[in-house]
Write a structure and sequence with these properties.
two-stranded antiparallel sheet, 2 domains, 141 residues, two-stranded antiparallel ribbon, alpha+beta
Length: 141
């Protein structure tokens, strides 16, 4: 196999183990040597990443991501960063009448906290109020 692809046995072993990535030319030679069983695209790590199958930005701030029959919609890091997601965020999807709303769990929690904060009177401590209620309950028991 190494001879057919024009590479040393050690070089082929490094590629096989993932320690090295072949050049485009060598990847094509390995594909030919294996009769297409091992593709150049898979060796180069670009298999199934044609522009038609990946999300890509449109020119107006929206993104286009096709839905495949046997693959999930891919949300690339560039899109997530553009929409304000941070490493460790969880993505929350909500169906709306007009489509789908996508936000981060962090932003959802912050929005809820902000809404609840509006219900607290200035100078009021909910923690102090809760402690007082618990002490009153304990005293009644």
């Amino acid at each position: 196999m190494a001879r057919a692809a024009g590479v040393s046995k050690g070089g082929l072993s490094s590629i096989k183990s993932g320690k090295a990535r072949p050049s485009l030319d060598l990847a094509k030679r390995i594909e030919r040597a294996t009769g297409g069983e091992v593709t150049a695209a898979s060796l180069l790590g670009i298999e199934n990443t044609t522009p038609e199958s990946r999300a890509r930005p449109l020119n107006d701030g929206r993104w286009f991501a096709p839905v495949g029959t046997d693959a999930p919609v891919e949300l690339p890091a560039e899109l997530l960063r553009a929409f304000g997601f941070e490493p460790g965020d969880a993505v929350i999807f909500r169906q709306t009448r007009d489509g789908v709303l996508m936000t981060s769990q962090r932003k959802s929690i912050r929005r809820i906290q902000d809404e609840l904060a509006k219900l607290v009177r200035p100078g009021e401590s909910l923690v102090d109020e809760l402690i007082a209620e618990r002490r009153a309950e304990a005293a009644r028991e």
